[in-house]
Design a protein that fits this description.
Chains A, B: Pathway: Amino-acid biosynthesis; L-threonine biosynthesis; L-threonine from L-aspartate: step 4/5. Chains A, B: It catalyses: L-homoserine + ATP = O-phospho-L-homoserine + ADP + H(+). Two copies of one chain form a homodimer. Chain A contains eleven helices and 13 strands. With 372 residues, chain A is of the alpha+beta class. The N terminus of chain A is likely disordered.
C-alpha cells in the first residue's frame, strides 16, 4: 500500500465504484476518442432529469509533461486528489450552480473563490450543465481539496474533473468522456491554459496522449505492468504556472527538436511496453523545457541527481513544478529515493520538502457515493 | 504477394535464410540495443578466420522519417533492395577489399565509384573488417543495385547493410547487430550524414526508433498486424539529400515542436498497436519538415491529397524524397492508390512516376547464399 507522509496531501484509498462515470473501454488496445469541439454530436433532444439527489466524486492528481511529453502527455497517480459532493438543491435558481463550501488543504481553500465562474470546479460544472441543457434544476457543490494549488500535480484539473463527472452522473451519465474533458478544458483554459495533459488523465486515468485539439483526439496508453511507482517530492516553494511558462524558449533548434521527439517516441513506447528503464531514460532526457525551468526551482538539479543516484529509473519536474517526480519499480526503494530527494531539496535548495510514493491511477475520476 | 511495376526497381522475393546474420530477438517486447561507440566491448581477442569462401547477402529498402519521425524513425520494406556477393580473394592484398563489379539499376551503377573508400558498400565493409581486426585475408565484393540512388528509399544504406552483414558472416558472425549499424553509420556519415534511420532498419528490419547515438540506443518497434502495405511512388526527379536538408528550418516554434512531438508519440503508439488509422494520421501530420520539402518536389502536395482521397490512411515523403509513401491495409487498394498518386504526379507536377506496393520487411539484412 502506498504511504503518504505529506501533511497537506490528503491520502485516500478508494476501490473502483460500480457507479463510475467514464468510458469502460479506455484500456482497450487501439482506442482513441475523437470528437468535434462542437456540441452537435452530443446535443441532447430533451433536458435530462436528475436520477439521483446527490453524488460524491473523486478525481486523482496528475503528472503532466513527463519530460519530453511536454504539453501532450500526462498520467494520473492514485491516492491523491480532490472530492466534489453535488446535490440537487431547490434553494438554487434552476439552471444554476452554487458553491456551498470549500474545505480540505488550507493553503488551497484560502485561495479559491466560491464564485462558480471563477472556480475550477464551478466552471467545469457549468460547462457540463450547458452541454446537458440543464434549465430546470439548481445544484449546490461542495469541494474538498486534497491537493495544494500550484504544486505541479494538476490541482485545478482534479477539481474540474471531479465536478464534471459529478454533474454528468447526477443527470444519468449522458455525456461521453470526451465531452467531460472538453468541459474540464473550459476550466483549464480560464485558469491555467488550454492544455489537456492534466484534465484528460484526471478524467480518464492512466497515461493519456493528447494528439490533437481540433478535433479532440485523446489516446489512452495502457501501462501493462504493475510495478510502477511515482516518487513525488514537493518542496515548500511556489512555482506559478505563468512564470514557469514565461521562461520557455519560443524557438527551438532543430537538433534539440529531433532529440526531444525521439525521447517522446521512446516515452510512449516504454509506457506501452511497461518498460520502466526506458520510461526513466526518456523521462530524464528533456533538453528543452526542464533545463529552463529547473534553475527556477532551488535545488531541483541536485534533487534529480539524488533520485538517479538512489536508484530511480528517471526523474523530472511534475507539470510546471515545483514537485519533482521520479519513477521506480519498488515501493520501499521509492521511499528511500524520496528521502534522498527531500535531503537534496534542503541541502542544495534550502527548501523543506515532503515525499509520497504513489502508483498509477488507472481509473480516473469516478463517483464514490450516490444517493437516490 | 506484392507487385512491382517499376522498371528500375528489381523486384525480389526472398524467404528468410537460416544463415541470417542478425540478432534473433528483435521482435521481443522490450528489446533495445545499447552500446558504447568504442570498440572496447567487441574487440576480438584474435583475428577470426573466414568460415566460408563466399556469401551473398541482401538488404532491404527503407522508409525514413515517416513524417514526424524525422531523423529518428525508419522502417524496412520488403522485396526491394541491394545485393552483395563477397568472396575470399587471394588476389586481393590481405586486410583489404576490392570492388570487382557493380551492376543492376543503370542509373545507380553509372554514379557509383568502385573505389571502396568512396563507395557505401565499400566503406561499411572496411569498417566491419577493422572491427574484426582482419589483416590476413583479402576480399572482393560485387554489388548489385536493386535501388536507384537519391530516391528516398535508403539506397546507400541498403548497400552498406548488405556489405556489413556479408563481411561479418564470412568471418563467422562475431559482431553484434549494433556494431554492424555503427559500421553502416560510418558509410552514411561519409555519404549522406550521421543518421541511423535508414541503416538501422536496413540491418534490423521492421520499424526502428533511434533513441540516442552516444551511446547508440536502437529500439525495435514490432508492428503486430499483418495487413500493412506501403504504396511507394517514385517520380523521375532528382531530390538530392543535401538540397533537401538545406531547406529545413534551423529554429522551430514551440507550438510546432509540441505538435510534432505529440504526432511522433502517436506514430510510435500506432506502430506498437498495429493501428493503421493512427499510423496514417500521424504519418500525414508533420508540420515542420514536409511543408518545407514538399514544394521542392513538383506535384507532391497533390500526390498526398490524391492518396488520401483514394483511401490511404496517410501519406508523406519517404526519406528526403522524391518518393512519396502512403499506407493502406489492402494490396489491391494499394495499387489503386498508387495509380491515383502516379496520375497526380503527372497532372500536377508534370512528372512521370511509377508505383509499387510493398509490405513491411521484418527481417532486415540477411545472407541468402553461402559457400563453404
Amino acid at each position: 500500500m502506498a504511504i503518504c507522509n505529506y501533511s497537506h496531501f490528503k491520502p485516500i484509498s478508494l476501490t473502483p465504484s460500480t457507479n463510475r462515470c467514464r468510458f469502460e473501454s479506455s484500456t482497450s488496445r487501439v482506442l482513441t476518442f475523437r470528437c468535434n469541439n462542437s456540441l452537435a454530436s452530443t446535443q441532447l433532444k430533451a433536458e435530462p432529469e436528475p436520477v439521483l439527489t446527490s453524488v460524491k466524486s473523486f478525481a486523482p492528481a496528475t503528472v503532466a509533461n513527463l519530460g519530453p511529453g511536454f504539453d501532450f502527455l500526462g498520467c494520473a497517480v492514485d491516492g491523491l486528489g480532490d472530492f466534489v459532493t453535488l446535490r440537487v438543491d431547490p434553494d438554487v435558481h434552476p439552471g444554476e450552480i452554487s458553491i456551498s463550501h470549500i474545505h480540505g488543504v488550507e493553503s488551497s481553500v484560502a485561495k479559491l473563490s466560491k464564485d462558480p465562474i471563477s472556480n475550477c470546479a464551478g466552471i467545469a460544472a457549468i460547462s457540463v450543465m450547458k452541454k446537458l441543457g440543464i434549465r430546470s434544476v439548481g445544484l449546490s457543490l461542495e469541494l474538498e481539496k486534497g491537493l495544494p494549488l500550484g504544486s505541479g500535480l494538476g490541482s485545478s484539473a482534479a477539481s474540474a474533473a471531479a465536478a464534471a463527472v459529478a454533474v454528468n452522473h447526477i443527470f444519468g451519465g449522458k455525456l461521453p468522456v470526451s465531452e467531460l474533458v472538453l468541459a474540464g478544458l473550459d476550466s483549464e483554459q480560464k485558469l491555467s491554459g488550454y492544455h489537456a495533459d492534466n484534465i484528460a488523465p484526471a478524467i480518464m486515468g492512466g497515461f493519456v496522449l493528447i494528439r490533437s485539439y481540433e478535433p479532440l483526439d485523446l489516446v489512452p496508453l495502457a501501462f501493462p505492468a504493475e510495478e510502477l511507482f511515482f516518487v513525488l517530492v514537493s518542496p515548500e516553494f511556489e512555482a506559478p504556472t505563468k512564470k514557469m511558462r514565461a521562461v520557455l524558449p519560443k524557438e527551438i533548434g532543430m537538433s534539440h527538436h529531433v532529440w526531444n521527439c525521439s525521447q517522446a517516441g521512446m516515452l510512449v513506447a516504454s509506457v506501452l511496453r511497461g518498460d520502466l528503464k526506458g520510461l526513466g531514460l526518456a523521462l530524464s532526457s528533456d533538453k528543452i523545457v526542464e533545463p529552463k525551468r529547473a534553475p527556477l526551482i532551488p535545488g531541483m538539479e541536485a534533487v534529480k541527481k539524488a533520485a538517479i543516484e538512489a536508484g530511480a529509473f528517471g526523474c523530472t519536474i511534475s507539470g510546471a513544478g515545483p514537485t519533482a517526480v521520479a519513477v521506480t519499480d519498488d515501493e520501499e526503494k521509492g521511499k528511500e529515493i524520496g528521502y534522498q530527494m527531500v535531503d537534496a531539496f534542503m541541502n542544495d535548495g534550502g527548501l523543506k520538502a515532503r515525499s509520497v510514493v504513489r502508483k498509477l491511477d488507472r481509473v480516473g475520476a469516478r463517483v464514490i457515493e450516490s444517493n437516490p
